[in-house]
Design goal:
The chain is mainly α and about 200 residues long. The chain contains eight helices and no strands. It is found in: Cell membrane.
Length: about 200
C-alpha cells in the first residue's frame, strides 16, 4: 500500500511539474497534457522495461492515467488565473524525485535484485521523467546541471537500504529516504550545493 501511494503521489507531483514547464514554454493544452504524462510515467516506464515487468505499470492500472489527468487539469486551471509561486517547479520536481526514487527502489528490491541495481533503478525512476520533460521542452535537463539531482536520489536510496539492513521498520526507512532526497535537493536549490566540478586537463 505504501509503495502504491508513493507511486500515485509521485505521478501527480511530476504531472504538475510537467504542466508548469509546458506553461513556461508557451505550449498549448495538448502539449501540457503530453508533457505532464511524459514526466509522470517516463521514469517508471523505463524502469519496467529494463526490469522486464509487463504489462507496464500504467497499462496494468489505468488509475495512474486518471491521476495525471486530474493533476494536470487542476494545475492548468491554477496557472490560467494565478502565476505559480517562484520555486513551485523546483519544489514539485524535488518531491517527485524523492517519491519516485524510493518507490522505484522498492520495486527493484521486491524482485530480489542486488543493492546496486536497486540504487540504479531508484535513481533512474526518479530522474528519467524529468529529463525527458526538459529535453522535450528544449531545456537543459536538471540532471546535467551542477546542483545535486541524481546524487540526491542515490543518497536517499542508499540511506533507505542501510536503514533496512540495520533492522529499521520499512515505513521509517521510506520516510527517511524521502526526507534525505528532499533535503539534498532543497539544499541545492536554496544554497547552490553541488558536486565538485570537472576541470579540463592542461
Amino acid at each position: 500500500m505504501i509503495l502504491y501511494l508513493l507511486d500515485l503521489i509521485g505521478v501527480a507531483v511530476f504531472a504538475v511539474s510537467g504542466v508548469l514547464v509546458a506553461a513556461h514554454s508557451g505550449m498549448d493544452l495538448l502539449g501540457g497534457f503530453a508533457l505532464a504524462a511524459l514526466t509522470a510515467i517516463g521514469g517508471g516506464t523505463l524502469r519496467d522495461v529494463l526490469l522486464n515487468r509487463h504489462p507496464i505499470f500504467w497499462i496494468r492500472d489505468a488509475r495512474y492515467l486518471l491521476v495525471i489527468l486530474i493533476a494536470a487539469s487542476l494545475t492548468m486551471v491554477y496557472v490560467a488565473f494565478l502565476p505559480p509561486p517562484g520555486y513551485s517547479l523546483l519544489i514539485a520536481d524535488a518531491l517527485g524525485l524523492a517519491l519516485f526514487a524510493i518507490s522505484g527502489a522498492q520495486i527493484a528490491e521486491s524482485e530480489a535484485h542486488s543493492p546496486l541495481i536497486v540504487v540504479l533503478m531508484g535513481a533512474m525512476t526518479g530522474t528519467a521523467g524529468g529529463m525527458l520533460r526538459d529535453v522535450m521542452s528544449a531545456r537543459v535537463p536538471l540532471i546535467f546541471q551542477q546542483d545535486l539531482y541524481a546524487t540526491a536520489a542515490v543518497g536517499g536510496v542508499v540511506v533507505y537500504l542501510i536503514l533496512q539492513k540495520v533492522g529499521a521498520p520499512r515505513t521509517f526507512a521510506v520516510c527517511v529516504g524521502v526526507a534525505v532526497i528532499l533535503g539534498l535537493r532543497m539544499l541545492a536549490v536554496m544554497d547552490g550545493a553541488h558536486l565538485p566540478r570537472l576541470h579540463a586537463l592542461h
